[in-house]
Task: structure prediction
Amino acid sequence: MGFGQHQSFYLREGWLHKGLEAVSLDESLLAKPDAFEKMGIGKNMLTALRFWLIATGVTKYDVKNKIFSITELGEEIFNNDSNLNLPFTRALIHYNLAKNSEVNDLNGNRSSTVIYWFFNELEGNMFERDLLLEKFTQWASKFKDISINSLKRDIDCLLYMYDINNAFEDPEDVLHSPLSSLELVSKKDNIVKLEGKIENISDELIYYILVDYMNIHELDSLTLNEVINLKKLPGKLFNLKSEQILKNIFSLKKQGKLEFIQTNNLDTIQIKNRPVNSIEVIKQFYKESRDINESII
Result:
C-alpha cells in the first residue's frame, strides 16, 4: 500500500478536461512513455494527472492493454461540465475522491489517499498542523512504513487543494484548485479546521450519494444518524450536522424523491423508486440543467 501518487501536484483547474480530452482522442496516449511531451507537461505532472483521472472516477485504466477509458461518470462530466463550473460537479468530484479508500496505479499497485483518511477516518474538526500530520502518520503506519516527508507532502497537497482561502483566487489561474470553492477546509497560521457549508451542497448531490450508497451496500433504508456519522456518507464527507442535512432531506421529501419516517427512537430515510444505476441521477441533473439554460436562451 503506497501513498503520494499525486507527486505533490494537487488537482488543478482544467486538468480533468485536459485528461478526458486526451483519452477521448487516444485511449493509449497517457500510458505512452512520451506522453508528457505530447501533453506538454513534465513527467511528474503527468503521473499526477493520471492519478487524479483515476482517483476521481472519471477514467479507469486497463493494466493488461495499457489503455485508459472514460467511465459513465466521466462521460457525463466531459459532455456537460468538464471545466467543473457547476457546484454540483465540484461536489461530485469531491465525493468520488473522498469515498475511495484505495486507488490503483498504472502497474496495478494499490495506493491509499490522504483525502479518504481526512474526510472519513479523522475524528474532530480542528487541529494544529503538526498534530494532523501525527494522526495521519499513525493511521498510515497500519499499512506500510512510509517516510514522514512523503506523508507531509500528502497533507500539504490536501490543504492546497481544499483550503477555503484559495477559493477566491482567479479561477483562470492554472494553480487554482476547483475544490477549494467547496469551502470544506480552512487554514490559518498553524490551525487547520474542517468546515461544513450546506449552501455548496445541493439536494441533487445528497440524493445521488444516498442512492449510490444504498445501491452499493444493497440497502433499503438508512437512518438519519447513519447519514450523519457513517463513512462515505454526507455528514462525514462534507462535515455536515443533522440540522444542515435535514434541510436537504425535507426538501427531497417535498419533491417526492424519498420518504422520511420520523419516530421517537429512529428517523429513517427510504428512496422512492430508487434508480438501479446511480448514474441515472447524474444524467437527470445535467438534463434538467440543460433544459433550464435552453429556456433562458
Summary: Residues 279-296 form the longest helix (18 residues). The chain has 13 helices and ten strands. The radius of gyration is 19 Å.
